[in-house]
Amino acid sequence: MGVGGCLVVPWRCLAVLCLRLLFLVPAGVPVRSGDATFPKAMDNVTVRQGESATLRCSVDNRVTRVAWLNRSSILYAGNDKWCLDPRVVLLSNTKTQYSIQIQDVDVYDEGPYTCSVQTDNHPKTSRVHLIVQVSPKIVEISSDISINEGGNISLTCIATGRPDPTITWRHISPKAVGFVSEDEYLEITGITKEQSGEYECSASNDVAAPVVRRVKVTVNYPPYISDAKSTGVPVGQKGILQCEASAVPAAEFQWYKDDKRLVEGQKGVKVESKAFFSRLTFFNVSEQDYGNYTCVASNKLGNTNVSIILYEISEPTSSTLFQGPGAVHDGNNGTSRRAGCIELLPLLLLHLLLKF
């Protein structure tokens, strides 16, 4: 059965046995714990993982022997080190204080520590609890995902830490709609293209700065034409038709006039297509170039098209060129000035005759 119910709480029994052997206390003398005035240990000690924890116990000149224990293990007895852990060191053993330090603390160091003293042949103990805090760490997160519009997704973010971290999901795309979720799992049903972009998982427990990771969500959708305008160009001038389309994956463009497809390299015409637009350029517009053109945008999810007209306009003439502010448009202006000069001529001749 053991001494004092060892099968129920073995670490306390072992500690008592060790103390009795250490201090040579008779078996009939009880070990008292939690003396109101002596010895006095610290309150609970809280440190972060990787830091050093200092355990102090106040003593006085009545003390003849001192020891620090962790559960059933004696760490130090006086100046003698009983444990093999190099991280445990003796800081002070004076008439007023007995303290040890545990360096590079880890989570398995958490738990109760006992300061035990011998005075007047009576051992007394006081206990302090070491609490180890651990910075948050994201240990599992979903990979980047691609999904068709209207589908459902589930994003996962698992984090560890002490205390348990709070998990927050946030949509940080420029087109974000303020979507936030405080849970390890983020569920989106019937996803839209506006919900594409990056989602940030943040794990925080106030021990250290929050740790963040991101998941990119790509939403595929068929093309739609966002801009296309008909254009008027004079004969012989350069003309451009442009068609813009939004799509994921990016759209492929084709141009048609009536039922005939226009291809790159065709005489007098250049077809230029980028990720989100296509441009049809006529370097020297002829009468045959005027008419209705169709821009077709397509990807693996579908296609769309729009009709654009290249139409003829008159070429600007000299009379329609720019004129400065306040210009007077009067076709008889020059004739009026000349008439005024002729009317003044007789008056000048009369003035000269009278003078002589």
Write the layout of secondary structure elements.
Layout: H1 10-23, E1 32-33, E2 40-41, E3 45-48, E4 53-58, E5 65-70, E6 73-77, E7 80-81, E8 88-93, E9 97-102, E10 111-119, E11 122-141, E12 145-148, E13 153-162, E14 166-171, E15 180-181, E16 185-188, E17 197-204, E18 211-228, E19 231-233, E20 239-248, E21 252-257, E22 260-262, E23 269-273, E24 277-282, E25 291-299, E26 302-312, H2 333-355
Parallel strand pairs: 1-11, 3-11, 12-18, 19-26
Antiparallel strand pairs: 2-4, 4-9, 5-6, 5-10, 6-7, 8-9, 10-11, 11-13, 13-16, 14-15, 14-17, 17-18, 18-20, 20-24, 21-22, 21-25, 23-24, 25-26
Can you describe what's shown?
With 356 residues, this protein is mainly beta. The protein is 10% helix and 49% strand. The strands form 4 sheets. Strands 1, 3, 5, 6, 7, 10, 11, 13 and 16 form a 9-stranded mixed β-sheet that branches. Strands 12, 14, 15, 17, 18, 20, 23 and 24 form an 8-stranded mixed β-sheet that branches. Strands 19-26-25-21-22 form a 5-stranded mixed β-sheet, with no helix packed on it. Strand 21 and strand 22 form a beta hairpin. It starts with 9 loop residues before the first helix and ends with a helix. The N terminus is likely disordered.
